[in-house]
Amino acid sequence: MAVWSRDVLAPPLRGVEAVVCDTDGVITDSAKVHAAAWKAAFDAFLTEHPPEDPARRRPFDSGDDYLRYVDGRSRLDGAAAFLASRGLDPTAQTVRAVAADKERLFTARLREHGVDAFPGTVRLVRALRAAGVPVAAASASRHARELLTGAGVLDLFEVLVDGGEAARLALAGKPRPDLFLEAARRLGVAPARAAVVEDALAGVEAGRRGGFGLVVGVDRTADPDTRARLVRHGAGIVVHDLAELLAEGARR
């Protein structure tokens, strides 16, 4: 396959030697399915076990709470973080029960509706590969391979490090950078010469902690506060869609 010039890429990407992309919300439009499953699981639990503090007796917010506490984290870490935010004791048994309920709900929704890949992401990944830049997919979810396969994009990625691999290798969850560092290692590129693309606060923080040369935040909400939080957690640049990382002439 002929290698294109890197001029098809926007300037921030022209100097990187590899790119590691998060899966949910970056490659596949699955974040909203995760958020809906978390809301159903958490709201059911809060109804049965309301916090003592009345101010904390509010339902799970699929926007703010999802971004703050569960997006980008493993199911167990996300469940524990949200329950603690409501003043509840996140015992191991409770965390496992809520996480299992979320898993059941997510799997049912996924099998019923499926998910699509974001067109802008597909265009960018194809341009990166044509320019000789290898791309990895990384996710704390054990469903990543299923999601990528169902969306028809698994073969676009040289490497996939998912939740199953993270468990097998005992990789720490985000905001620790272990998942991304393993993906970069498998691509054979030092983190300082690679980019991470993430939509989660924990994920951009992981990219910063891992010493990646570029951390790209993805804000599909177009909410100025979300953009600002991504920057505070470590994003060097923030885009609404990954097609923005193509040179202007290549976006058409």
Question: Can you walk me through this structure?
Answer:
- With 252 residues, the protein is of the alpha/beta class.
- It has two domains: 6-30 and 116-251, Rossmann fold (3-Layer(aba) Sandwich); 31-113, no CATH class.
- Helices cover 44% and strands 10% of the residues.
- It contains ten helices and six strands, in the order E-H-H-H-H-H-E-H-E-H-H-E-H-E-H-E.
- The chain has a six-stranded parallel β-sheet.
- Helix 1 packs across helix 4 (92-113) and helix 3 (75-85) crosses helix 4.
Provide keyphrases for this structure:
252 residues; alpha/beta; Rossmann fold; 2 domains; six-stranded parallel β-sheet; 10 helices; 6 strands
Draw up the topology in text:
Blueprint: E1 18-22, H1 31-48, H2 64-70, H3 75-85, H4 92-113, H5 119-130, E2 135-138, H6 144-150, E3 159-161, H7 163-168, H8 178-187, E4 194-198, H9 201-209, E5 214-218, H10 224-233, E6 237-239
Parallel strand pairs: 1-2, 1-4, 2-3, 4-5, 5-6
Helix pairs in contact: 1-4, 2-3, 3-4, 9-10
What is the arithmetic mean of pLDDT? 92
Q: So what's the CATH class of the largest domain?
A: Alpha Beta
- What can be said about the biggest beta sheet? 6 strands, parallel
SSE topology string: EHHHHHEHEHHEHEHE
Q: What would CATH call the architecture of the largest domain? A: 3-Layer(aba) Sandwich
How many domains make up the coordinates? 2
